[in-house]
Backbone:
């Protein structure tokens, strides 16, 4: 989780004076987002990452499209730990004789639900607090700043352990809640910096000189022009949250049996990986890694497309 | 510099107290909502009240404020901070002093962190420089792809895979080879060997450092590319200075400032991350202690050790900030 702070360090986009909604026809000057879309369309990385994300999302929302096997159809005696084979099930069977493919397909929904909920949560908090701190400055800024420092002082994983230890119910909501409580700090700082640099632009001064209210300035000028770095970071955070949820589940403080999630499959498969059943470990690991990778790549191309200095 | 230092120190104290309070409040809430951990120790056979009371007093959990939900128990917090300041972190459920356990385990975690830090700094900076000097060429693409892949591996996935398919398999194979020296065999071990306090930590250290290694390589690369475009580099080139000197002396020094900052902050992160690595490789360090306490639900240990690590993390950040101000005078006049 800590890397996102460094990867997002080049977020200033101040060289783009246009607002976001100026794309009119091919020859008109494109706005920031029009420009970004123009870049993205040509990027093979963007398309492959998007396809991966689309596949995983559809697995999470409509698992029955991907497998006709019920996740709880397990046959311990017949199929326990059965290895993958080309003429049988390609992904083999889990330790308890459940179909591995059905397990990973159904397992995606919880991981993804946690990631999406947490990413939305941290974005909302980040935008609200970051904008308040950056725009109003002074006392508000110091209070929010110190508050951020306090939460930042808890290392992510350790904090999540302590938080989850006090929540007796472990479900999508409580795990997302914990990830939000610990994850909002970096986004708030990034948003604050971005708002600070936008706030001092001439067009904001012009708007204020024309008598616009703070509310108008924030929603019409400051937010649209400073939210791009937040988009990049939340996309990367989606991957980071998938990874964090799997880690916490693996550590035993996330989802518990009989839920089916990737973290649980890895935890369950680890001891048998060396006893002739490496697929119990490799297949769920591969799903986690590919999903995280897709989100990180998407965030990366998005950042490159949104940063005019890269051209 | 003096003013900056004073201001930074004044900010540090409330933040440390705030973080400790956050931890304290969490533990208090946990007791108020989930019930008393002492009572839970006895399972379904309730002990006599006198025993319960005595044990509560022993663990400092006899404060009446623990009976009202949502009460922050400020008095208890002040006592706790006072105890922490005297390096008294209480006792675990088996009655051992937590301070003793941590002092005994801390050197192992420090060694692990040191291995990870050295590894990620040397390899990460080296890869970042290689990639940054040849932007968009083969080496650059290779570094970019491999670091992205590395970041996509959650530490625990990487650790489990390395342990099972790398440390164990190669270790077993080495044991059957007559030529392999003892040190090599002890390096490829899936568990910690107390007779080889450094060698058997090498592989876990590499796993622990791998995640930050990718970030450092990327950071070095971006920072180097940005600085290579700077005016002063063009001037140095125009003067006819050799490429080695331009890169080695002028550009690299300036490019490494953010990397050094990152390394400093990472010390704290690594100590927290050691939790997963130590858990997987069964290393008896501080992280392993938390891993164990989570399994045993020993909340006093979790809270105390997390408090120690949070303070270490905050102190590391403070030192980095001060160091940064020494390196870059602009920061002081903010």
Residues:
């Amino acid at each position: 989780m800590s890397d996102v702070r460094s990867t997002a360090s080049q977020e200033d986009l101040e060289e783009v004076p246009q607002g976001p909604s100026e794309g009119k026809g091919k020859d008109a000057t494109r706005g920031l987002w029009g420009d970004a879309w123009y870049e993205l369309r040509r990027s093979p990385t963007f398309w492959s990452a998007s396809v991966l994300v689309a596949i995983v999302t559809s697995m999470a929302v409509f698992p029955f499209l991907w497998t006709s096997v019920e996740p709880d159809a397990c046959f311990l005696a017949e199929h326990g730990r059965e290895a993958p084979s080309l003429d049988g099930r390609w992904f083999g069977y889990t330790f308890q004789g459940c179909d591995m493919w059905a397990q990973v397909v159904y397992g995606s929904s919880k991981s993804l639900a946690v990631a999406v909920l947490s990413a939305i949560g941290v974005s909302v908090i980040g935008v609200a607090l970051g904008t308040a701190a950056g725009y109003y400055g002074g006392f508000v800024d110091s209070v929010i700043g110190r508050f951020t420092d306090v939460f930042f002082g808890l290392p992510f994983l350790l904090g999540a352990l302590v938080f989850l230890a006090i929540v007796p119910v472990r479900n999508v909501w409580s795990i997302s809640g914990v990830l939000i409580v610990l994850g909002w700090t970096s986004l708030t700082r990034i948003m604050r910096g971005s708002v600070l640099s936008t706030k001092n632009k001439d067009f904001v001064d012009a708007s204020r000189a024309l008598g616009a209210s703070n509310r108008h300035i924030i929603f019409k000028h400051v937010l649209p022009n400073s939210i791009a770095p937040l988009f990049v970071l939340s996309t990367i955070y989606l991957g980071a949250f998938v990874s964090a949820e799997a880690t916490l589940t693996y550590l035993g403080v996330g989802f518990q049996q009989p839920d089916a999630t990737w973290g649980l499959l890895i935890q369950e498969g680890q001891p048998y990986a060396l006893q002739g059943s490496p697929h119990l470990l490799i297949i769920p690991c591969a799903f986690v890694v590919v999903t995280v990778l897709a989100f990180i790549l998407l965030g990366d191309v998005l950042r490159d497309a949104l940063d005019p200095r890269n051209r | 510099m003096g003013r900056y230092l004073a201001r930074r120190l004044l900010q540090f104290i409330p933040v440390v107290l705030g973080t400790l309070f956050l931890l304290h409040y969490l533990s208090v809430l946990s007791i108020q909502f989930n019930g008393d951990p002492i009572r839970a120790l006895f399972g379904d056979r309730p002990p006599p009240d006198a025993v319960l009371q005595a044990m509560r007093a022993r663990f400092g959990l006899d404060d009446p404020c623990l009976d009202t939900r949502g009460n922050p128990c400020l008095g208890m917090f002040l006592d706790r901070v006072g105890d922490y300041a005297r390096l008294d972190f209480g006792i675990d459920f088996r009655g051992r002093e937590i301070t003793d356990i941590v002092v005994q385990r801390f050197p192992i975690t420090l060694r692990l962190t040191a291995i990870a830090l050295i590894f990620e700094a040397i390899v990460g900076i080296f890869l970042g420089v290689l990639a940054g000097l040849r932007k968009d060429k083969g080496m650059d693409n290779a570094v970019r792809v491999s670091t992205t892949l590395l970041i996509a591996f959650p530490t625990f996935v990487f650790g489990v895979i390395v342990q099972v398919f790398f440390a164990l398999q190669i270790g077993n194979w080495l044991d059957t080879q007559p030529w392999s020296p003892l040190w090599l065999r002890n390096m490829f071990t899936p568990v910690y060997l107390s007779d080889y306090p450094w060698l058997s930590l090498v592989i876990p250290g590499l796993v622990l450092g791998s995640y930050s290694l990718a970030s450092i390589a990327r950071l070095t690369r971006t920072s180097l590319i940005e600085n290579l475009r700077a005016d002063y580099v063009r001037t140095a080139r125009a003067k006819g200075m050799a490429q080695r000197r331009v890169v080695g002396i002028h550009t690299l020094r300036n490019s490494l400032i953010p990397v050094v900052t990152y390394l400093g902050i990472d010390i704290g992160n690594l100590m927290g991350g050691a939790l997963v690595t130590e858990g997987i490789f069964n290393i008896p360090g501080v992280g392993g202690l938390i891993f164990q306490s989570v399994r045993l639900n020993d909340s006093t240990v979790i809270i105390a050790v997390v408090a120690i690590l949070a303070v270490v993390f905050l102190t590391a950040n403070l030192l980095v900030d001060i160091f940064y101000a020494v390196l870059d005078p602009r920061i002081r006049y903010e």
The radius of gyration of chain A is 22 Å. Chain A touches chain B through 49 residues (CB under 8 Å).
